[in-house]
Amino acid sequence: RAYNFNAGPAALPLEVLERAQAEFVDYQGTGMSIMEMSHRGAVYEGVHNEASSRLLNLLGNPEGYKVLFLQGGASTQFAMAPMNFLTEGKTAGYVKSGSWASKAIKEAKLIGNTFIAASSEENKYMSMPDVSNLVLPENTAYLHLTSNETIEGTQFHEFPDTGNIPLIADMSSDILCRPFDLTKFGLVYAGAQKNLGPSGVTVVLAREELLQNSPSHIPTVLRYDTHAENNSLYNTPPSFAIYMVNQVLKWIEEQGSLDGIEKKNREKANLLYNAIDESSGFFRGCVDATSRSTMNVTFRLGSEELEKQFIKESEKEGFVGLKGHRSVGGLRASIYNAVPYESIKALVDFMSQFQKSHG
Ligand code: PLP
Predict the structure, then answer these.
(1) Catalytic residues
(2) CA 198 to chain centre
């Protein structure tokens, strides 16, 4: 297997792929693949409901929360959240932390009034904004933040308390990388293709009361209440992707649930950040140490030529996906839940070799 550091779609646990392979053609003696089954049948619905309850279970089964499985990626949630919540006379607060937060803001502005509650733009998004003392007007419909900026490589390590104002989080690139208190949030969404499974399904976790009474003018398929009332079976769901999410959730349980996953992620991130910090400046971490992401590690070399050489040589050694996002350049290793410690160990060894031959 390749050493896969892709930002997304990203590595999946080998065990999950092998289990899916074993039942790919004949799902548990039914004579059909799960993807060939009706989404209205008992077998598929069993998988669908299991995925939903596993997810809530991993988060401690907080009362009054529901899971939705939607399509259109996190990008559709950038629009759907304001369409459903940013009604006349209200304004929506946004934490402007980087590339993905900016995309969410752009969509919300198309729908209604917004304001920037906190921003790290002045620091070129090399840190997460301070969200400890936010002032939110009374007519704030919600506060939106991006828990992990996939492109810049920054991550929130604490979340603000927004009281009665719903906190909405785009957790696409770090959901289930650690335990978190879902009750602090009104709604959380994530494209599955980093920590949850393959692309094609978007997971939404929300307080039930926010999934009722969407404004009447919103098209049926873009209303949260439609999907909540129909157990995410209003229209044909991405059934195979949801089946895979269920398998990934089962795998997370086997890793010691979110506490176990967090411990492994810490060890992985420490290994890589230490290698960067101990390279006497040959490798340089891009972002402020306090905002470093445990999922997307961004770093640079002394020149773009050297970075190109690094990519070229790394690819020859079986490393995939180490090039930084085209908008920021540099290097990035995405070390999501499914990336094994051994891959990071191999990367750190390669970095050390590269420094010896080019330093
Ligand atoms: N938000 C974040 C933090 C992301 O990392 C991404 C994708 O990389 C997106 C949103 C967009 O997700 P999608 O491609 O599922 O629309």
Answers:
(1) 100, 170, 194
(2) 12
Q: Which of 254, 275, 305 is the last residue of a domain?
A: 254
Say whether pTM exceeds 0.95: yes
Can you list the positions of beta strands (E) in 274-321?
284-285, 296-300, 319-320
Max intra-chain CA distance, the chain: 64
Which residues span the domain enclosing 197?
A: 14-254
- Written as six digits, the tokens of 160 are 């603000």
Structure confidence by residue, pLDDT tens digits, 54-106: 999 999 999 999 999 999 999 999 999 999 999 999 999 999 999 999 999 99
Same domain, 268 and 243: no
Question: ipTM of the predicted structure?
Answer: 0.99
pLDDT digits over 221-253, tens only? 999 999 999 999 999 999 999 999 999 999 999
Determine if residue 150 is labeled as part of a ligand binding site: yes
150/48 same-domain check: yes
The answer to whether the beta carbons of residues 182 and 163 sit under 8 Å apart is no
Q: Which of 107, 125, 154, 173 to mutate to test the pocket of ligand 1 (most atoms within 8 A of CB)?
A: 173
Q: How many domains does the chain have?
A: 2
Do the beta carbons of residue 236 and residue 38 sit within 8 Å? no
Residue 198 Cβ inside 6 Å of ligand 1? The answer reads: no
Element holding 203 (H helix, E strand): strand 202-207
- Residue 152 Cβ inside 6 Å of ligand 1? The answer reads no
Shared domain for 60 and 75, answered yes or no, is yes
Q: Which residue has the tokens 């400890």?
A: 132
CATH number of the domain within which 250 lies: 3.40.640.10
Name the residue among 166, 158, 154, 152 with its Cα closest to residue 93: 166
State how far the Cα of 70 lies from the Cα of 191, in Å rounded to an integer.
9
Report which protein residue has its CA nearest ligand 1's atom 9.
74
Q: Which residue has the tokens 């209003």?
A: 234
Report if residue 307 sits inside a domain. Answer: yes
Q: In what helix (H) or strand (E) does residue 331 lie, and over which residues does it extend?
A: strand 331-334
